[in-house]
Amino acid sequence: MSTPTTSTRRTTPRADCVADAAGGITFDVAGTGADDAALVLKRRGGKGPSDEVRLPLTASGEGFSRAVVPSAVELAEGRWDAYTESGAAVEPGIRDLRALVVQEPDSGRIAVRIPYPTADGRLAVRSCVRTPHAEAGAIGFAPDQGAMSVEGVLYGTELGEGAVVEARLRSGERVHEVPVSGGGRTFGFTLAYGPIAEAGAGEEGLWELWLRPASDGPRVRISRILDDVWDKKSIFVYPEQRTATYQAAACYTGDNDLCVRLTVPV
């Protein structure tokens, strides 16, 4: 939790945030200038008109101004940095993310927005937009079998005949499939590390995990985005399986996608 934003005479803009489960965020900003009529969100790396969103600021008392991004406003997948209209980067204050801790969307289209502090102390919003979506849940490990098991929930589609999970080597065309258990919107699978190590022919790298809900359907990336953790890469750390020929561990990417990382022992 950040230090509360209490000063009404701040020279550096700072925003307290409240996020709701529908995707809306309220910003209470201190330290804006007379020329700052809006809070501006800019998508990192974006260059088009849809990569900038202006949110009008209105006085809310005690030196604060309020801006709101409603759930109906589109924020494309990515990381959005917050600025005042005059171009000053906004610092993060209190971030109330309690509504995001446990989410149960009732729609097939998933849109999650999490305000977070960047490594260099600025305020940003992580936006995830997925249709359909495969949400990873509990992950278990069987060290004696050299395998991981995953349970999850599907949004926007359901399991059909011939459902499989594909482990796909990011740097090449190698693919290893395993069967899927469950039914309807729930799924589960067990992935042994040995076969993907053999399929990779000793190549190190990330194996991305995709769910193909039916034999004739499109693949869906397995991710974990329905909570308040904006970057799971360094938070969710899983045990490593070591053998004489490979080392393997489940992990998340910077986009919160589930993978298996394979390396070769030195």
Order of helices and strands: EEEEEEEEEEEEEEEEHEEEEE
Report the sheet-strand fraction. Answer: over 45%
DSSP strand tally: 21
Distance between the termini: 40 Å
Give the tally of structural domains: 2
The biggest beta sheet, please?
A: 11 strands, mixed
Mean pLDDT: 91
Poorly predicted runs of 5 or more residues: none
Number of distinct helices: 1
3D shape: elongated
Rg (CA only): 21 Å
Q: Which class do the helix and strand fractions yield?
A: mainly beta
Helical residue percent? under 10%
Briefly characterize the structure.
The chain has one helix spanning 193-199, and strands spanning 14-19, 25-30, 38-43, 52-56, 58-61, 64-69, 78-84, 91-96, 110-117, 123-130, 133-142, 147-155, 164-169, 175-179, 181-183, 186-192, 205-212, 220-223, 241-242, 247-252, 258-263.
Question: Can you describe this structure?
Answer:
The protein has 266 residues and is an all-beta fold. It has two domains: 14-130, Immunoglobulin-like (Sandwich); 134-263. 3% of the residues lie in helices and 48% in strands. Strands 11, 12, 13, 14, 15, 16, 17, 18, 19, 20 and 21 form an eleven-stranded mixed beta sheet that branches. A five-stranded mixed beta sheet has the order 5-6-2-1-8, with no helix packed on it. The longest helix is centred in the last third of the chain and has 7 residues, at 193-199. It is elongated and about 65 Å long.
